[in-house]
Amino acid sequence: MSRDDIQKLLGGYATGTLTEAERKALFDAALHDQKLFDALADEEALRELLSDSYVRAAIRQALEPAPEPSGWGVWLRRPFTWAAAGSMAAAIALLLVMLRPDAAVHKAEVAFERPNEKKASTPAANLTSSVPAPARQPPRKHAAKPAAAKPLAAAPAPKPEADALALRSEALGEAVVVSPPNPMSVVSAFNQTAPVVAMEAAEVRADKARGGLGMATVRRAAAPAAGATAVTPAIRYRLQQRSTAGMYEPVDPDLPLSSPAPLRMEVETNIPAYLYAFEAQAGGGYLQLSVGPTVDAHVRHSIELGEPVPDRRVILVLSVRPQAEFAVGTATEGAVALLSKLRMETAAPLRQKSANSMYVMGRTGAPVLVVEVALPRR
Amino acid sequence: MPDSEREQILAALRERIVAFAASRLSRDVAEDLAQEVLILLHEKYAQVERLDELLPLSLRIVRFKIMGLSRKSARRGEYTQVSVDEVRLPDDEPDPAARAEQRQMLERLTAAMAGLGERCKQMFRLKIEGRSFEEIREIMGVASINTVYTWDFRCRKQLLERLGGSWEPKK
């Protein structure tokens, strides 16, 4: 990388955006370049601020795009609607002037009242058929997509089916790794999120009372719009290991670990849902790990995993409904039975790796996603 | 890692720290501060060897010490050395004064971000969400990662300008 390119990495330092290679390049350069070192030192204030999860949540909320208007709001925001209405009003006024008063009134009534037709619901629909329909405006690039058409009701578990895109099976024998040329990659599916909606004041107060952040807007998949597609449930996770300096650094989940230091898993979902985590025990039981259960979309949650030991597996369960058996906090008989059933019946998810993050996607409309993670060994 | 390699890194770090601190404090104070940082790295963090750990760690220590110096000199009107034992890394619990500063920084930052263009807002949002530059490149539909680097650099510059050139409020 050129010096200019390395300097451009500065913005990724405070936010933790840099890969291991980018950090190395930046630090190597800063060690021998006073200006770069000084700039990096100045970033330390921002890095420290952003290391607080509350601060990150507050900034994310501030940067969320405004909720998309619906119904009347969509029509009223389109300038063509008002331009067409203005033109029609001018044309009618001209008719009234040019024609006999009684005939003009009759024609205006015919234009606006057609008793045999359904009453229009928008001002634009009151215009005569000579006015062309307003052109559809392309959605803003950054706007959230419409919500799911169908409510995410419980559906029978789909049968596992051969996936034409599967290129190889992992040692688990259950998941398949997806590689291009699937145009709808798992990463893209993960980023296809529910729209932002404004929270009612009562909901904000209730959230604060529960100790939450009381966000004014959240991503919510519960209000489906006609014709829109369902959001596919997906999880993104990455493993981190504590460094000798006491900070957690990402590790490649596919490579053996070089250190006995404690591990941590960061998990993020693309839909607001219920997240449960378990560790499979040698004797066939499960240890329930502390996370969730209610999670919002695109909020990172950390699961402490302790020191690495051989043959550890973590099972993540993402469910659109709360699973009462998992609510107890310990793996009761009912919880063990349900988890075993979900592992067997849930179709194999699709996985895609990007940098050190693993993206896992369920089936569209499926109410539960089960992800099994074999932790790397030393 | 051989000792000599670590020593070379520390020697270079010392030089950088002195020059950085001297731009904010007197030369004598900067030399003392750099020496304290090096002592801390030797005594408390001897096991930290790699540059990608040593450098950010030293930056945190430098910042902590400079903040400590400015608070003590503000209280007593003089420079007083900060004891090695008072450095509480990596404990991240801020004291009340730090919390108040944090709140102020957050308010300034969110107000400045509100005035940015949509692309910059999206860029910052994706970074705050923990995306890598490669993931951001894919999400924003850009062909080259260098474009993402350039956009990020410009957005960061715009944000800093809106903040008067510093992430921290001027005292």
What this model shows, in words?
- The complex is a heterodimer of chains A (378) and B (171).
- Chain A is of the alpha+beta class.
- Helices cover 31% and strands 20% of the residues of chain A.
- In chain A, the strands form three sheets. In chain A, strands 1, 2, 5, 6, 7, 11, 13 and 14 form an eight-stranded mixed sheet that branches.
- In chain A, helix 3 (20-32) crosses helix 4 (34-50).
- By secondary structure, chain B is mostly helical.
- Helices cover 69% and strands 0% of the residues of chain B.
- Chain B has helices spanning 3-22, 27-43, 51-76, 96-114, 118-128, 133-139, 145-162.
- In chain B, helix 2 (27-43) packs across helix 3, helix 5 packs across helix 7 (145-162) and helix 6 packs across helix 7 (145-162).
- Chain B starts with a helix and ends in a 9-residue tail after the last helix.
- The model of chain B has no long low-confidence stretch (mean pLDDT 85).
- The interface between A and B is large, with 63 and 59 residues.
Supply the key terms.
heterodimer, A: 378 residues, alpha+beta, 8-stranded mixed β-sheet, 5-stranded antiparallel β-sheet, 31% helix, 20% strand, B: 171 residues, mainly alpha
